[in-house]
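At this stage, I put together a protein sequence along with its fold in token form, as given directly below:
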Amino acid sequence: MKLLLILSLLAFWSVPLSAQIISTRAGTVKNVRGETFFRCHLNEKEALPLEKNLLLHNGDTVLTTEEGSVAIALNPDSYLVLSADSLMKVVETDLGAMHFDIERGEILIISRSLKGGASLVIHTPPAVLTVFKRGNYRIFVDKNGHAEANVGSGELRYFDENGELKRVKKGRKVNFIKRKKE
């Protein structure tokens, strides 16, 4: 038993320290399918191919083509999947205040843990949605800016046009209409 413990400790310490640290930021690209691109916050004019293990930063924009999709880590147990033909901006990658703006397309959120006051904000053209609980969520924004949010499990929160806090729970959906500017 002692030999097994010693071998385990040796194996752990032989791994570089950087491989042992769990990121305190969201935004690591975990999987890429098809053509996906990003515009770096430092050079928004050029779209570069998105690659696995790339760390997205605040201000970066992610674009998927009709055959593309990308999975982005939110924390070690949670992911955001940007589906085909979507456009999303990374606003904040700090785990305590993750924030993404989706301009068009579909995102799927698989959240197995949101601990220590962490939250996830998804800004769509007509509404700002907040995820506080673990669960499965789908948010779709059409080409006109209208949005639909589905809660497979968990709870989404948003403020309605009267400023009242609304909750969308397991098995429910809510639609949002983008208002025309006057």
